[in-house]
C-alpha cells in the first residue's frame, strides 16, 4: 500500500523545505521529495541556493575580499603583511564545509518537525478520489505515495547558451564557477547579472583578469539607474572588471585547456581567449519529469507553472511556489510563498506583497533595493520626490575603510509614503531591510527621518537620505 500524506512537497530548496516544515508545524503529515546529490555523491537538501548558489557564492566572496584587503587595504591601518599567499583549493574546501553544515541542518529540521524526507525524482501520476498519486524514482527504485495536497517547488536550472556545452571544466555554469580550484589567468563571463558580477568579483580579487560580456546595452537594467551607473563605475574602476555592454556573442570554441569567444561590440569584431568561461545568462523553470502533461498541469509558454495570486494551480489541491512560478527568482520570495501556501492549506489567510521584496547583489560594495525605481515611477506617471546621501562622510564607513556608495529614497510627492529605497555601499544587504519594514508598514519618509538611528552606524546614511527627501539633510 502506498504511503499516504496530507501534504507532499516536491523539491527541498528554500521554498520547498520551508513549506514542508511549516506544513508539519500546522499539524499535517508531510513529506518532502528531493533529488539533489551533493559533491560527495550523497543526497543533499537545500536545492540550488544552499548547494550551488546563494550560500557558497557568499562564502567565496568573503574569502576573496579578505585576501584583497590584506593585499590592498591593511597598510593604511598600519598593518603590514608580507608574502601573503592565496590557496584556491582551501577556499573551496571552506565553502564546501559551510554548505555541508547548512544542508545537514535541514535534515535535522526535518527530523525535529517530523517531515518525511524522500530522496528521488518526484512526479505526479494521477488522481484517485481526493488523493494525488505520486512517484518517487531513485535510480532503479520506484516508490508510490499519495497526498491530499501537493506543493511543486522544483526550482530552476541554468539557461543554456545555444551551441555551447557546459563541461564544468573549461566552460562553467554557476556550479562549476564555485569549484574552480586554481586561479585562472584569464576568466571570461557571459552575462552581467547577479551570478556574473559576483563570480567575476571573486576571481578578479584573487588575481584573475576578468572580462564580462553582456548582451544588454544597459547595465543592471532592473536596478535604479542612478545606482546602476555608480555600480558600473565602481566595479570597473575600483574592482577592475572589464564589463562590455551591448555584446553580440558569436562562435564559442572549447579548446580543452582554454576557450575562444568571438563577439562583436558596436560593429567591432573580436576573438578573445580565456582559461575559463562562465556562462550565466539566466535560469529556466524545472518542470521536466514532473508529469505535468500526464495530469494536465498548466504551464505557460516559457515553461513556468501557471498559478493564481495564492499560488494555486489549475488542478485541485496542487500548488506551486518559487522559481518554477511567476515573479522574481529569489530564495526569500520562494520561502515566503512556501509558508503562505502551507498556511492557506490550513485555512489561514497569509499576506505576501511582491512589491516589497528586497533585491541584493553581493559585490563590493553591495547593491540592494526594494520598491519602485525612479525610471518606473516616471514611466507610470507617478509624482515623486527623492532624497539621497552618501557614505563618504559617514564615520562608521570611514572607520571600516568602505566609504563609497549612495542611499536614495523615493517618496510619493502627495502622501510622502516611501515608494522605493535604492543603495550601493557597505552592508546594504542588511540596511535594505529598513526600507522593507518601512514600506510594509506604509511609512512616510518623515517617519524614517524622525526615527533615532545609532551613531556611529551605517544606518545613519539611510536616515540622512530620508531627511534629504524633505530637503533638510543635516550632514550633506
UniProtKB/TrEMBL annotation:
SUPFAM superfamilies per the record? FAD/NAD(P)-binding domain, FAD/NAD-linked reductases, dimerisation (C-terminal) domain
Q: What is its EC number?
A: 1.8.1.4
Read off the InterPro entries from this record: Class-I_Pyr_Nuc-Dis_Oxidored (IPR050151), FAD/NAD-bd_sf (IPR036188), FAD/NAD-binding_dom (IPR023753), FAD/NAD-linked_Rdtase_dimer_sf (IPR016156), Lipoamide_DH (IPR006258), Pyr_nuc-diS_OxRdtase (IPR001100), Pyr_nucl-diS_OxRdtase_dimer (IPR004099), Pyr_OxRdtase_I_AS (IPR012999)
Q: Where is the FAD/NAD(P)-binding domain?
A: 5-338
Q: Catalytic site residues?
A: 455
Name the UniProt key words of this record, in alphabetical order.
Cytoplasm, Disulfide bond, FAD, Flavoprotein, NAD, Nucleotide-binding, Oxidoreductase, Redox-active center
Which Gene3D superfamilies does the annotation name? 3.30.390.30, FAD/NAD(P)-binding domain
| Keyword Nucleotide-binding among record annotations | yes
**A Gene Ontology molecular function term of the record:** flavin adenine dinucleotide binding
- Which Pfam families has this protein been placed in? Pyr_redox_2, Pyr_redox_dim
Where is FAD bound in this sequence? 58, 122, 154-156, 323, 329-332
Q: Which reaction does it catalyse?
A: N(6)-[(R)-dihydrolipoyl]-L-lysyl-[protein] + NAD(+) = N(6)-[(R)-lipoyl]-L-lysyl-[protein] + NADH + H(+)
Name the source's superkingdom.
Answer: Bacteria
Q: Which residues form the Pyridine nucleotide-disulphide oxidoreductase dimerisation domain?
A: 357-466
Specify which residues bind NAD(+) according to the UniProt entry for this protein. 191-198, 214, 282
Further facts: The active site is a redox-active disulfide bond.
Regarding protein family, the annotation reads: Belongs to the class-I pyridine nucleotide-disulfide oxidoreductase family.
Record protein name field: Dihydrolipoyl dehydrogenase
Organism expressing this protein natively: Craterilacuibacter sinensis
What's the gene?
lpdA
